[in-house]
């Protein structure tokens, strides 16, 4: 069985998928980068300096965020779908690298696991949201395994892991209800349109004869 990762997307055309990929890319620039830059400023205020590896990490995230804007131009439907699937996996991984390497400063942005996961859910439906959720959980577990800071704050780590595990399932039920309600509304709208078309036809036929 092949999973349709875009089951919840109303418009699965090239333009529809391109709009979703572009929206995700804009979030990376408009939300994530300002938060990361604020991390750099906070590091400087506390230590009166910013090490090269911190600046390199920041530059690396900027480099990761910009290319999608160019790649989506002229991309086919299949490529856009692959980009969505890959970004659902790579976004949590990149976030985890930042969190693992920056310790205290990385803890400030752990909420982006949920931000990213739910973003995929409400834009594309449950399959892609749960794929992003699995990637978030797996990468956050790796953060715990390799980061001394998080090993020293295991209770804090576990408290953050709980919503990453539970919240998307609750959101998934809401997304499914919204999808069913939208489909029902669309069916009702089509039924009304068909009825009006039939009534109009029935009225025009005798009037034409007269």
Low-confidence stretches: none
Overall average residue pLDDT? 84
Largest sheet: none
Radius of gyration equals: 23 Å
What sequence of helices (H) and strands (E) makes up the elements?
HHHHHHHH
Number of strands: 0
Q: What is the number of helices?
A: 8
Measured distance between first and last alpha carbons: 59 Å
- The helical percent reads over 70%
Percentage of β-strand residues: under 5%
Structural class based on helices, strands and sheet pairing: mainly alpha
Write down the overall geometry. elongated
Properties at a glance:
elongated, mainly alpha
Question: What's the helix and strand layout?
Answer:
Blueprint: H1 14-47, H2 52-65, H3 67-71, H4 77-102, H5 112-124, H6 126-146, H7 148-152, H8 154-209
Helix pairs in contact: 1-2, 1-4, 4-5, 4-6, 5-6, 5-8, 6-8
Overview of this protein structure:
This protein is an all-alpha fold. Helices cover 83% and strands 0% of the residues. The chain contains eight helices and no strands. It has helices at residues 14-47, 52-65, 67-71, 77-102, 112-124, 126-146, 148-152, 154-209. Helix 1 (14-47) runs parallel beside helix 4 (77-102) and helix 4 runs parallel beside helix 6. The longest helix has 56 residues, at 154-209. The model has no long low-confidence stretch (mean pLDDT 84).
């Amino acid at each position: 069985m092949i999973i349709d990762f875009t089951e919840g997307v109303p418009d699965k055309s090239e333009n529809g998928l391109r709009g979703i990929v572009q929206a995700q890319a804009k979030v990376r620039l408009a939300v994530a980068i300002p938060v990361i830059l604020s991390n750099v400023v906070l590091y400087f205020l506390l230590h009166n300096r910013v090490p090269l590896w911190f600046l390199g990490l920041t530059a690396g995230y900027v480099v990761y965020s910009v290319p999608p804007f160019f790649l989506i131009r002229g991309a086919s439907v299949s490529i856009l779908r692959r980009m969505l699937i890959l970004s659902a996996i790579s976004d949590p991984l990149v976030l985890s690298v930042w969190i693992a390497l920056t310790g205290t400063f990385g803890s400030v942005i752990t909420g982006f696991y949920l931000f990213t996961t739910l973003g995929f859910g409400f834009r594309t439906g449950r399959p892609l949201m749960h794929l992003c959720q699995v990637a978030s959980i797996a990468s956050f577990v790796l953060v715990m395994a390799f980061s001394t800071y998080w090993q020293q704050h295991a209770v804090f780590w576990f408290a953050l892991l709980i919503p990453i595990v539970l919240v998307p399932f609750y959101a998934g039920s809401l997304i499914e209800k919204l999808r069913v309600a939208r489909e029902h509304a669309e069916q009702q709208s089509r039924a009304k349109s068909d009825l009006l078309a039939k009534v109009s036809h029935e009225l025009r036929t005798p009037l034409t004869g007269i």
